[in-house]
Amino acid sequence: MKHLISIGDLDRASAIELLDTSSRMVATQERQMRKLPTLVGTTVVNLFMEDSTRTRISFEAAAKRLSADVINFSAKGSSISKGESLKDTALTLRAMGADAVVVRAPSSGAAHKLAHSGWIDVPIINAGDGTHQHPTQALLDTFTLRRHLGGEQKQGECSGSVDGSGLDGLHVVVVGDIMHSRVARSNVQLMTLLGAHVTLVAPPSLVPVGADVWPCDVLYDLDEAIALQPDAVMMLRVQRERMLGGGYFPSAAEYTRRLQLTTERAHRLPEHAIVMHPGPMNRGFEIAGGVADGRRSVIVEQVAAGVSVRMAVLFHLLASNAREES
Amino acid sequence: MTADRPGTTAPGSEKTVLSGDDISRSLVRIAHEIIETGHGADDLVLLGIPHRGVPLASRIARTIAESEGTGRDPESLAGSLDITLYRDDLRRSPARLPHPTHIPAGGIDGKIVVLVDDVLYSGRTVRAALDALSAIGRPAVVRLAVLVDRGHRELPIRADHVGKNLPTSRSERVGVQLAETDGLDAVVISGAAAGGADAEATEVQR
Amino acid sequence: MTPTAAGSTADTTPDALLIRGARPYGEEAADVLVQDGLIAAVGHDLEAPDGAEVIDAEGCVLLPGLVDLHTHLREPGGEEAETVETGTRAAARGGFTAVHAMANTTPVADTAGVVEQVLQRGEDAAWCAVVPIGAVTVGLGGERLAELDAMARSRARVRVFSDDGKCVSDPVLMRRALEYVKTFDGVIAQHAQDPRLTEGAQMHEGRVSAELGLTGWPSVAEESIIARDVLLAEHVGSRLHVCHLSTAGSVEIIRWAKQRGVDVTAEVTPHHLLLTDDEARGYDAVYKVNPPLRTRADVEAVRAGLADGTIDIVATDHAPHPHDAKDREWDTAAFGMTGLETALGIVQHTMVDTGALTWRDVARVLSETPARIARDTDQGRPLEAGEVANLLVWDPRPSAEVDPEAHASRGRNSPVAGRSLPGANRLTLLGGRPTVRDTQLVAR
């Protein structure tokens, strides 16, 4: 594995290895001294062409805990047009001696382009490209799921080792704007790769044409999905400006009625089921505040897992020969 | 132990230098040395360095627990300490994936920690283990036990307990096999088929 | 001698040229004598007059010079991408003796002045005939008609009008344009794309776009405009030409319209005969084109439509771009592909070598019918004595890997780079004068 652009870059074994390494990283973060010397002397560039404070600081924390130097490069607001900026920026980063580039960009395929354009020859980590992929988000979601529900356990307890296991037999429901969601695309691929069954729930106007071949079910009704008694429900952020302006649904009120994870709906989930959200949340829109803060919610844990998962990704790309051996 | 190998192994050839019985005797002797040096087993923690240091630490811990008067449970005595993330040569020589670290319930603060590994070579693994240890806690004393010391140190590190001193050439390869990981117990030395990098790999690429 | 494509070998035009053994329309071999810019004789065992050059063309196919109804020469305004000079060199290398230059230049070809300038540049370059296409609306703005009559009556004698690159989406404006060009037997060449259904569109809407997260360009956005336009053309009794049709549904609509007797013609590009939306998977913007590459089923449908005559012609939509316009993220890259120098190779590969078209059909779809649609007088003519000698001698036997660096076009954005295509341009005659010999340009 030279780059991490898409979940499609992973097979089941390498995905599980990444999750297992993430567990090792979690353990190091519980020590008195959390900083590891692993990547000392390397420079990781966070190239963010689009605002995302959460993802950026997560990658920054991951790189710093591994002792890498971090350069934050924000190209947003630059007067140069987007394409020129990406290419010119890549050439600049190459000249500066970056050892890896974490890239977030508004264009689908930007990370792939950066990895395969010949502009720069270092590992590229996709931190979200347009509406295409967000692989580290899917890894941290999957890590959190596996920690709670993986292996033999189904009681929502974090006991025992889940090393080596996938998500076999789990049923995950993902709710929201599937069409514009890179998180949904990455999660459908990764969760099904690891043996979970995924059901997407969205208004039909937010299901992309062509999704009929995805390895998952699509429902239009959240109550119907909850009746299936899933093990986990992931609520996606509704981007109000995009959705209402685009006419994808009539009103916020109608969306909330049909698709909000309310306290009442959460109550109908099985006892062990967990509730996830990639953040940032619109409390009271796609998810009720009580559910976000409730006992099923693992939303804060997802954020913590994000740092460990990104440490694992950096380790695999910059310091490990794991994939070359196989 | 004295050196009994004046020559070196021919390329491609292989020679067993420790049998299963030899290994068992060495570990029992190391266990007794540890008890004697530490004046008992009360504050003792054995941390095996993955991969093969971990079963070695367990075996030594069992012997210590079985010794009269120690009153220790081998589970509380032995653990593992992964050093992958603390290596200083990752960029030059990429690592395999990290193994779990397991510290016995009592922790290591104020304890006598004995690091256990199969082969002592350059000393870089031990240096990394000391760094890893300091991230976890502050032992009173840290000692080192190894099954084989093959020489060629690159750092000022020496073992406190050695199963066998084995003078080698850098081009040779020392292979420790254990029942838990390889199906049988043996220490094998072989001539360098694939050159010096292989010999380095026995210790560095764990 | 290692002549390069961009350069050209000097040559003096012989007084007479005897092409021996080529097969007109791929049929029975014959000799063709060219003299004084005309076909002097077609027959067997013709005698070479004194001073005549004899060209052994045994095994080659003789076709009327190819006519492209859809070419972007980029001049004026886009000279970094192409000029009339480089674009017509590319055309000659492709076997074309005439190209129709699209109006979306800067300034837009929406006045007699601009179309006459383009005509003049073509005459100066003299690698092939350059026939300007006029814009339908002022500045391609889609709001009011350009002075179509003035362009028709200019020295450029414009007969084809198109806002290509943009769709004349306003139905009233489209109706008026269709009606208006009847005065001078003109035709509106429509770029069929509903603008609202394709806002931000990047590629064909379907399984690949869903996976790649690129905004979809649905087939219906093309088909709905074509359906509307054939009904409008029928209603007002005008001539309609549909540019670069790309979907199976569009073929069905054209087939239906022709059965009703609507005066409609349709074109397909070489790339839509060959490539599918799967090419987008590598996010290489060289495959970004408008209309987008469609599915395998669409490719099969346009091939069938071309074979059965529903689709009248192949036109290149040759759209060169500077490197930087393509070497970037997909959604910021330019639409378009080059096509002039690979068109006949692709048509041979997809249609002739598969048995779907004969060489006589190729003469029809790449020369005679496009000339007829555009009302060109000296192009797409029969291979008969007395006709202007606009000819192509094509050797269908060799095949070669496409190397855009060797192209005469300034554009390097060929979607078939690295692929092997059959055929070679042995000789192209423009009014009896060789413009290409053995794939190399021949300077005047």
UniProtKB/TrEMBL annotation, chain A:
Annotated source species: Brachybacterium endophyticum
Coiled coil: none
Function recorded in the entry: Catalyzes the condensation of carbamoyl phosphate and aspartate to form carbamoyl aspartate and inorganic phosphate, the committed step in the de novo pyrimidine nucleotide biosynthesis pathway.
Residues given in the record as L-aspartate binding sites: 82, 182, 237
Origin organism lineage: Bacteria, Bacillati, Actinomycetota, Actinomycetes, Micrococcales
GO terms under cellular component: cytosol
Protein's name according to its UniProt entry: Aspartate carbamoyltransferase
GO biological process terms, semicolon-separated: 'de novo' pyrimidine nucleobase biosynthetic process; 'de novo' UMP biosynthetic process; amino acid metabolic process
List of residues binding carbamoyl phosphate: 54-55, 104, 134, 137, 279-280
Gene name per UniProt: pyrB
UniProtKB/TrEMBL annotation, chain B:
GO BP: regulation of DNA-templated transcription
Ranges spanned by the short sequence motif PRPP-binding, renumbered to the chain: 113-125
The keyword Ribosomal protein is assigned to this record: no
Catalytic activity: UMP + diphosphate = 5-phospho-alpha-D-ribose 1-diphosphate + uracil
Keyword line: Glycosyltransferase, Transcription, Transcription regulation, Transferase
Entry keyword annotation includes Transcription regulation: yes
Enzyme Commission identifier(s): 2.4.2.9
Domain of life: Bacteria
SUPFAM superfamilies documented for this protein: PRTase-like (SSF53271)
InterPro entries per UniProt: PRTase-like, PRTase_dom, PyrR, PyrR_bifunctional
A Pfam family hit: Pribosyltran
One GO MF term attached to the UniProt entry: uracil phosphoribosyltransferase activity
Phosphoribosyltransferase domain location: 25-161
Similarity section: Belongs to the purine/pyrimidine phosphoribosyltransferase family. PyrR subfamily.
Role played: Also displays a weak uracil phosphoribosyltransferase activity which is not physiologically significant.
PANTHER family the record matches: BIFUNCTIONAL PROTEIN PYRR
NCBIfam families: PRK05205.1-3, PRK05205.1-5
Protein name as catalogued: Bifunctional protein PyrR
Source organism per UniProt: Brachybacterium endophyticum
From TrEMBL, chain C:
Annotated Dihydroorotase catalytic domain residues: 60-247
Keyword annotations: Hydrolase, Metal-binding, Pyrimidine biosynthesis, Zinc
Region (Disordered) residue spans: 400-444
Enzyme Commission number(s) of this protein: 3.5.2.3
Catalytic site: 317
Catalytic reaction(s) noted: (S)-dihydroorotate + H2O = N-carbamoyl-L-aspartate + H(+)
Amino acids binding Zn(2+) 2: 164, 191, 244
Pathways involved: Pyrimidine metabolism; UMP biosynthesis via de novo pathway; (S)-dihydroorotate from bicarbonate: step 3/3
Annotated family: Belongs to the metallo-dependent hydrolases superfamily. DHOase family. Class I DHOase subfamily.
Protein name: Dihydroorotase
Species of origin: Brachybacterium endophyticum
